Amino acid sequence: MTSHAIRHVRVTPIAFRDPPLLNAAGIHEPWALRSIIEIETDSGLVGINESYGDLPMLEALAKAAPALTGLSPWALNEMDTRVAALVAPRQMSASEFLGQQVSLAPGTHVSKTVAKVISAFEVAMMDLQGQLANAPVVDLLGGAARPAVPFSAYLFFKYAEHIDKPYAPDPFGEGITPGQMVAQARRMIDQYGFKSIKLKAGALPPEQEVAAMRALAQAFPGAPLRIDPNANWTVATSLQVVEQLRGVLEYYEDPTPGLEGMAAVAAACDVPLATNMVVTDLKEFRRNAEMGCPVKIVLSDHHYWGGLRATQRLALMCETFGLGLSMHSNSHLGISLMAMTHLAASVPLLSYACDTHYPWQDDEVVQGGRLQFEDGSLRVTSTPGLGVQIDREALARLYDNYLNTGIRNRDDLGQMRKYDPGFTGHQPRF
Ligand code: GKR
Ligand code: MG
């Protein structure tokens, strides 16, 4: 009988171009990092996935990989247990703790390492399961509640090009004035057909960000709009902004730091609060519940919530507490996008358009190149597993990028200091 036991885990770090996007922590560096995970069975099948590519994550993946040897691709619970035993959470050093004050990407928190590694392996194992069962991942998750998943136009204030000019500027140009932001939205919507719009804020003085939102509301009447300053506003500023945007917002994402701050904003405004910063694990979920749920919409992300199954469990909890659910994103390529799509298609509650940074990337690691959106949505694939395969030539090129860039950990703050040496990244800034 053929053995489908896991024989080998291969992790390849990659780097791809990322535009100079502004956020509360600073600005994106010219290269974004990811890891490509391949899990091979004795029978020669290969399951794939994409995850974080910063150094601590690569170390954790390398440490946990041997635990998978000999395991069946179906043994997800056993994989969870083995990974948790090997990649024990550790205490944060003082500098890591301080670093968290300006970290916008929950995936970089050390406290999430076990959940991140489990997720990285789980998706690749489910890709294998799909190949063995001749079924798409969405069917392994209970079947599609919707045939295609809507995503939103994720706008950023941005500079026209990186300070270090490592390659030709991206086609979006500068995005600072309200007119430029409307043009950015127009370009993205024309290309992808998105129906909802999210503005990453917390980068410019709030009155400029409010002006951009108002211009967007006027240019795209009826489009659901969201703003996300990544907790860079005080409670007072958050309340001023929401008042100035009366009637404009679908939800209000992470205006101010901490659950207490969010609770203070929630008590004084009638727009539902959403987060990917203060409800990022079960402990925080419990705190939100104990406080009467000031946060009404959880922005899930299977990459740090512990995988696809864990996110389905999160959906059930959101339903139990009467919360909404949507999806957060970081810079990523097509394997992540496809895993997000299979997951979102399988969760009836996930009815908001999901976030994706995908339009900001121009490279791909999957065969066939860039994934195609139709009318702002991505169709869930019906072929076995995730339905995408690695383009080996592209993987080699992206790995070369990784070797050539000196970047090993995302550092938006350090990058911003190249433009403005006095930039502190202190939050809330406004
Ligand atoms: O990539 O600049 C960025 C985002 O700000 C990202 O770091 C956040 O994690 O997109 C994310 C968010 O919604 O907060
Ligand atoms: Mg956010």
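^ magnesium ion complex. DSSP finds 15 helices and 14 strands in the chain. The chain has a mean pLDDT of 96.
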